[in-house]
């Protein structure tokens, strides 16, 4: 299900909503269908939006190294930062992605997309899959392994950002409601202290529906699982013992920290 464009009674453009909700509002007589392709609806009431602040955006003029997990997640995210006046460079380091063929598919999709939007990229060479597995073996339940996965990837981005003189680093993982936002922010801020470059941990989930639309529009390759071998298993087998439904209890029971100490 994609997302629909929405305007209010005065024609003011609002945040998009998912198509199912848009069609329900039309069926309930609370909105009028303006167009089917792209799906656009007009609400029957006027929405007052908060006044835009005149204060300078703290992002303006920053040099950001953005860890990118895949091309679809880069769509909205790069646009959001560029609109704020940020000079964005992408960084590819995703040894979690399994198998190698899938890693290459996602990398190539991003390379193609980056060239269409003139996004400079820093590519980590090779495929450090053993390093990822070393980190997570024995800690496979999703909260533990994901925190380790975030740390592995973000630490490389922080190191490169510090070395290359960027003023900020961040990650496209912040757009996904399936990722643990609190863990990403906590780890990002800890790495910022360690490597001396600031982390930008904005909740970008408001762009999630829009990123699907942009990815579809750009014809990008879209995967069906997060990336690692465990997430592929969980996507295909609801009984997978690493699955997030069972993981919460397992995490609460364990005395190990995410580093397994
Ligand atoms: S589910 Fe995603 S974030 Fe979690 S460990 Fe696997 S690839 Fe990393």
Report on this model:
There is one protein chain. The longest helix has 22 residues, at 142-163. The protein has helices at 19-27, 71-83, 100-116, 129-136, 142-163, 181-195, 208-217, 229-236, 244-253, and strands spanning 3-7, 13-18, 31-36, 39-43, 63-67, 87-92, 121-123, 168-171, 198-199. The protein contains nine helices and nine strands. The radius of gyration is 20 Å and the shape is globular. The strands form two sheets. Strands 7-6-5-8-9 form a five-stranded parallel β-sheet, sandwiched between helices. With 261 residues, it is α/β, with parallel strands linked by helices. The protein is 43% helix and 16% strand. Strand 5 (63-67), helix 2 (71-83) and strand 6 (87-92) form a beta-alpha-beta unit. It has two domains: 3-43, no CATH class; 63-217, Rossmann fold, CATH 3.40.50.620. The site of iron/sulfur cluster has 10 residues, from helix 5 and helix 8. Iron/sulfur cluster (SF4) binds at residues 96, 142, 145-146, 149, 226-228, 230-231.
Structural class estimated from helices and strands:
alpha/beta
Share in helix = 40-55%
How many independent structural domains?
A: 2
* Mean pLDDT level: 89
> What count of helical segments does DSSP give?
9
Number of strands: 9
Give the termini distance in whole angstroms: 42 Å
Give the radius of gyration: 20 Å
Name the CATH superfamily assignment of the largest domain: HUPs
CATH second-level architecture of the largest domain: 3-Layer(aba) Sandwich
Biggest sheet architecture: 5 strands, parallel
How would you sum up the global shape?
globular
Weakly predicted, low-confidence segments: 246-261
Which molecules are bound besides the chains?
A: iron/sulfur cluster
How would you write the strand order of the largest sheet?
Answer: 7-6-5-8-9
Q: What do we call the CATH topology of the largest domain?
A: Rossmann fold
The helix/strand order is EEHEEEHEHEHHEHEHHH
Supply the CATH class of the largest domain.
Answer: Alpha Beta
Approximately what portion of the residues adopt beta-strand conformation?
Answer: 15-25%
